[in-house]
Design a protein that fits this description.
The protein is of the alpha/beta class. The chain contains 14 helices and seven strands. Helix 2 crosses helix 3 (about 115-125), helix 5 runs antiparallel to helix 6 (about 180-185) and helix 7 (about 195-215) packs antiparallel against helix 8.
């Protein structure tokens, strides 16, 4: 079918790969399928495909299910079965050497180490087909690329990834209606840049959705955890603290004391002056035979109390020394507070 265009997005099947950097090609296919109401697709030639029309052109969207390094098997099978010429193919893939969110369209080229692209070149026997590189940037620090590409987008990166996905779908539309040259001139180097106002707007929209999900399932910790994360991004720290404490109560009710204690720790990390919560954390560690962390938490509690009630702070230090009479930091703290009391 020489009039059909084949648009391939590279990625890996399986829920653990779903939102990772390596699967940005799949994200672009999903965006196009949703944008044009193409439904849930079907399985053929070890590929999930959608058929329809975009910008007046007959298209087949494809997500190979063979895992990244064998993508060429599915692509070659589809091209042979439907008799699709090379100039009707475009492949969307992640690219480490392109800045995050930046797009690069090419008429042809090598694989630059991208295993899915390398497999396609091997199975087609040439590299003369269009591709859209979706920049994911280089890994930070000493992180290995193989670990970086399999990480999901988080925070502002997740928002920018959504924006770049939409831009990449726009680029595919231009390739379909106006050709590769026009698409290259219009989109190469293009990257979304969210203003602080836009970032806040997106987060507030997400907040409303997640808030509603939490209201519908108040006993489910997942919506509440998402709600807290968004509140922190928006700077709603008092609300986030209350959320952590509600989440701790949910975990306690479900018999997950360790998770509950972790949420209380998150709450006092934001608001250390919550002395009752600090004490509850220390008591939890004592009950669970973790004297080191219990003492550490009591010292934090003493530091909070010393600003308003030195006698109460000394009493807390005494509790710490009951656990370990030789604890050097507790002894030093006791000497400091006792010395201040005598000087006063």
């Amino acid at each position: 079918m020489a009039d059909m265009r084949l648009i391939v997005g590279l990625g890996n099947p399986g829920i653990k790969y779903d939102k990772t950097r390596h699967n940005v090609g799949w994200r672009v296919i999903d965006e196009l399928a949703t944008r044009y109401g193409l439904g849930g697709g079907r399985s053929e030639k070890r590929t999930q495909t959608w058929d329809g029309r975009i910008r007046g052109e007959r298209v087949k969207l494809a997500k190979p299910l063979t895992y990244m390094n064998r993508s060429g098997e599915s692509v070659r099978a589809l091209m042979d079965y439907y008799d699709i010429p090379d100039d009707k193919l475009i492949v969307v893939h992640d690219d480490l050497d392109t800045p995050f969110g930046t797009l690069r369209l090419r008429k042809a080229g090598g694989h630059a180490g991208q295993r899915g692209l390398r497999s396609i070149i091997q199975h087609l026997g040439h590299k003369d087909f269009a591709r859209l590189r979706f920049g994911i940037g280089r890994p930070p620090g000493k992180m290995q690329p193989v670990d970086f590409v399999l990480q999901p987008f988080r925070g502002d990166d997740a928002i920018l990834a959504d924006e770049a996905t939409s831009l990449a779908a726009d680029a595919i539309e231009t390739w379909l209606s106006e050709g590769i040259e026009k698409a290259m001139s219009k989109f190469n180097g293009g990257a979304p840049r969210l203003s602080s106002e836009r970032t806040a707007q997106v987060l507030e929209e997400q907040l409303a959705v997640v808030q509603r999900a939490h209201e519908l399932s108040p006993a489910d910790p997942k919506p509440l955890a998402k709600l807290i994360a968004i509140q922190k991004k928006l700077g709603l720290m008092d609300a986030a603290v209350r959320g952590h404490l509600r989440l701790a109560a949910l975990y306690d009710a479900g018999g997950e004391g360790s998770l509950a204690n972790a949420e209380r720790v998150k709450a006092v990390t934001i608001q250390p002056e919550l002395v009752d919560i600090q004490r509850a954390i220390a008591e939890w560690y004592r009950r669970h035979d973790n004297p080191k962390k219990a003492i550490a938490r009591l010292l934090i509690l003493a530091d909070c109390l010393r600003r308003t009630d030195e006698a109460a702070a000394l009493a807390v230090i005494a509790e710490a020394l009951q656990i370990n009479p030789q604890h050097p930091r507790a002894l030093d703290y006791q000497r400091q507070l006792s010395g201040q009391a005598e000087a006063d």
